[in-house]
């Protein structure tokens, strides 16, 4: 599925695609009480293990759907990086009945494409010893095989069926922790969605696999290789993590993208898209009993399978500061990251409160100090959730130096604010403002079917219970000034720190 290329700011946040900071949230603005949501929520799990969350909202005849797969870039290993993202693209290619004029003939043609690619890959592996004439022959064979398979393809049929029935927001996204598929439809199209969504997870056909790999490689060139901040962030994460897969890029390494096969993608699907690894949130003008009947009829067809184990690799404690410098004729930039626990840790609410105090908006400490008072930066902020929340991640500070100012000045100014967090209790009004804004943020989040579906599914998959969407607010209410001092002193230390900077180089005219 084609998506717009993101700008520099979104590159920074985009790699956290599925964190709380970037996901939309939702529900009626007046209904922020957990008990009220529980009254309107229906939960059920099919015999094959697929979990459904159904929330009734009858204000308008529309329904939002969010399918969350508990798989992301964190579940990849060396050699197949980028595969979770590629499969997200593949999920829009249809099934044995959608997207083809003759599946049996197409399947034979795709097998020829696979054989041609594997032969070409083997010859390329010889590097300097490869036979140039043989390479040209295999390239032609591969291209011809793709053209043969194309004749059976019905382009974008999956999307067109959904679109012409009045859909809105049809999209998908892959992050480190999970992959989501979203759409909103008129309430009388629920059964259509049940059919279409179950089809692509019952028997997906990975047609145009190698062409879509080219699309993903172009995304990598645009979002990472041609963007200074994108390059910095990739280098930064690789330095911050030496063991855990959070250090690998969501989009994948170019050499992996070039060599991935359809068979590897199909194996990835079989392992990570079993029903027990999927959660569906449905919010809108629906009747839960009808939803359950349709879910059993359509999604119940999908064979059950074992739920994959979570990532067992644990990032060892840092023994000292790590630094990385990217030289580029671009705007200087400084990132400072500290390892922190995952979203289910007791201190997660404290980090949320710290985010509000130091990094949220023009009243935050970083903005007031670095931008307004010292004028060393044009942007300065801090937030958690990089690169993910499911496992221990990073709390990130970053700044863009003002004209004539340096990365070092920004870095020193950030450290000064961090030391204040450790040594001086935050003011009562600062802490109360953080709690008030957290409550207001939840109310703002609870204002649309699509946002609420996203948040319910996200919290269910990442934290294990959708109710934590509301319990997190209660936890923030309990945060004290002493908690902030304790957490800052424990985690914001020199040896737990990774620093990445863009140093501006001068190019010859």
Named at the architecture level, the CATH assignment of the largest domain is 2-Layer Sandwich
CATH class label of the largest domain: Alpha Beta
Q: Helicity, in percent?
A: 40-55%
**Domains counted in the coordinates: how many?**
3
Q: Please mark out the parts with pLDDT under 50 across 5 or more consecutive residues, or reply none.
A: 1-31
| Total number of helices | 19
**Major β-sheet profile:** 6 strands, mixed
Strand order of the largest sheet: 1-2-6-3-5-4
Strand content: 15-25%
Mean pLDDT: 91
The secondary structure category is: alpha+beta
Give a short overview.
The protein folds into three domains: 8-93 and 156-301, 2-Layer Sandwich (Cytochrome Bc1 Complex, Chain A, domain 1); 101-152; 322-504, Metalloenzyme, LuxS/M16 peptidase-like (Cytochrome Bc1 Complex, Chain A, domain 1).
């Amino acid at each position: 599925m084609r998506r717009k290329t993101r700008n520099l700011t979104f590159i920074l946040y985009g790699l956290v695609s599925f964190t709380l900071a970037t996901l939309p949230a939702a529900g009626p603005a007046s209904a922020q009480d957990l008990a009220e949501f529980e009254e309107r929520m229906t939960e059920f799990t099919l015999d094959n293990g697929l979990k459904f969350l159904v929330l009734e909202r009858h204000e308008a005849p529309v329904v939002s759907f969010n399918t969350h797969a508990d798989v992301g870039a964190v579940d990849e290993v060396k050699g197949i990086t980028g595969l979770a993202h590629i499969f997200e693209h593949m999920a829009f290619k249809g099934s044995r009945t959608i997207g083809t004029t003759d599946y049996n003939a197409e399947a034979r043609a795709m097998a020829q494409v696979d054989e041609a690619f594997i032969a070409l890959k083997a010859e390329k592996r010889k590097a300097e010893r490869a036979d140039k004439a043989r390479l040209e022959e295999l390239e032609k064979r591969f291209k011809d095989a793709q053209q043969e398979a194309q004749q059976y393809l019905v382009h974008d049929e999956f999307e067109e069926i959904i679109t012409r029935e009045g859909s809105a927001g049809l999209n998908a996204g892959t992050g480190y922790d999970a992959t989501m598929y979203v759409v909103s439809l008129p309430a009388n199209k629920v059964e259509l969605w049940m059919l279409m969504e179950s089809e692509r997870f019952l028997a997906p056909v990975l047609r145009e696999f190698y062409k879509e790999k080219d699309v993903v490689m172009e995304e990598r060139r645009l979002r990472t290789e041609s963007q200074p901040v994108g390059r910095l962030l990739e280098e930064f994460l690789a330095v911050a993590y030496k063991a855990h897969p959070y250090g690998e890029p969501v989009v994948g390494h170019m050499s992996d993208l070039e060599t991935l096969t359809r068979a590897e993608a199909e194996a990835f699907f079989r392992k990570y898209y079993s029903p027990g690894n999927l959660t569906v949130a449905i919010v809108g003008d629906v009747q839960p009993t009808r939803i359950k009947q349709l879910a059993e009829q359509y999604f119940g067809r999908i064979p059950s399978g074992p739920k994959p184990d979570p990532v067992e690799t644990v990032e060892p404690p840092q023994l000292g500061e790590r630094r990385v410098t990217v030289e580029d004729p671009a705007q200087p930039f400084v990132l400072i990251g500290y390892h922190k626990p995952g979203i289910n840790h007791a201190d997660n609410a404290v980090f949320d409160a710290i985010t509000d105090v130091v990094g949220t908006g023009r009243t935050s400490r970083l903005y007031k100090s670095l931008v307004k008072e010292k004028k060393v930066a044009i942007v300065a902020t801090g937030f958690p959730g990089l690169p993910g929340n499911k496992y221990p991640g990073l709390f990130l500070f970053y700044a863009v130096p003002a004209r004539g100012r340096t990365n070092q000045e920004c870095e020193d100014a950030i450290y000064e604010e961090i030391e204040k967090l450790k040594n001086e209790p935050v003011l009562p009004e600062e802490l109360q403002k953080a709690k008030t804004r957290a409550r207001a943020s939840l109310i703002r989040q609870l204002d649309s079917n699509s946002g609420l579906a996203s948040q319910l599914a996200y919290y269910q998959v990442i934290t294990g219970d959708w109710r934590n969407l509301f319990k997190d607010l209660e936890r923030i209410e309990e945060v004290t000034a002493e908690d902030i001092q304790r957490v800052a002193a424990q985690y914001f230390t020199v040896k737990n720190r990774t620093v990445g900077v863009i140093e501006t180089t001068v190019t010859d005219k």
